[in-house]
Amino acid sequence: MDTMRDRLAPVVSRLLDEDPRVAVVLAEIGRDGFREAERRHPDRVINVGIREQLLVGAAAGLALTGLRPVVHTFASFLVERPFEQVKLDFGHQDTGAVLVSAAASFDWPAGGFTHMAPGDVALLDTLDGWTVHVPGHPDEAETLLRQAVAAGDDKVYVRLSVQSNGQRRAVDGQHFLPVREGRSGVVVAVGPMLDAVLAATADLDVTVLYATTVRPFDAAGLRRATRAAGTDVVLVEPYLAGTSTAAASEALADVPHRVLGLGVGRRELRRYGTIEEHTAAHGLDARGLQERISRFLDAGRTEPGQG
User: pLDDT, tens digit, for every residue of 129-151?
Assistant: First the structure.
């Protein structure tokens, strides 16, 4: 199966042909996929070289002229390194673009920590007005990419990963998708975490929600799920642990609830290893998730006054 990133150049190249507003801005990374598009549209496929601050600034300038820029590089170079430009050139100037990242969290362990960005979504969370898509399958990535480009002048971040679920889901770019129903808690699986969550909760009586759009956070969807399953909520995210716990707590602010945020830990793993080894080390494989989710739900059932 191809990867999410494999879909990027073909999909966006077609959009370049279809829509004269679409432009692509690159910083060397990913340029090979756009060679043909660059020949067809030399004025709308722009490579700025290894200059990530310029990458964002140039995209914002194009947006100010009325174009819809698609901006692509690794997550660490797209969100973290040029964060000031993201904050000012898009946020302060009140313009938008589609930022599309690759090498999510620890997708390329051999690249070292300079090429890892588990804090990207949390960092964007400090800014106002960003839509954040986290697809879990290449087909979903294609759907969400098209929606993002068509989203007027909105600020959109699409987080692509080589990690993928085995099955595509019918995502709509807005709502959490119920995948399994239960009565002893709600587990929200974000993007490529769904397969591991389903395996981890196979013997647990929980509702599983699938989230591929995490900002705006589907508060209404979470509230609906908790009416039948209770207000013990576990969030399993493929980036920094706890990124969405505040959003979940806000959604349930008027009812007693408990929230557990699982994801990539803050401690840096200094050995390259493999994706699978990083996943297990952060407790995001099925075994690690099963242990932590079960422990959390059991604790809720045995709190003082409940036994």
Answer: 999 999 999 999 999 999 999 98
Q: How confident is the model at residue 182 (pLDDT cuts 50, 70, 90)?
A: very high
- The domains found in the chain, sorted by start residue, are 4-159 (3.40.50.970), 177-301 (3.40.50.920)
Token pair recorded at residue 176: 């959490």
Peptide bond into 216 cis (omega under 30): yes
Q: What gap in Å lies between CA 34 and CA 8, rounded to an integer? A: 9
Q: What is the DSSP letter of 114?
A: G
User: How far, in Å, are 50, 137, 159, 270, 303 from residue 104 at the CA level?
Assistant: 19, 14, 7, 17, 37
| 3-state DSSP assignment of residue 161 | coil
d(CA 159, CA 196): 19
What's the chain's average pLDDT? 96
Mean pLDDT of 243-263: 98
Asked if 122 contacts 237 with a C-beta cutoff of 8 angstroms, the reply is no
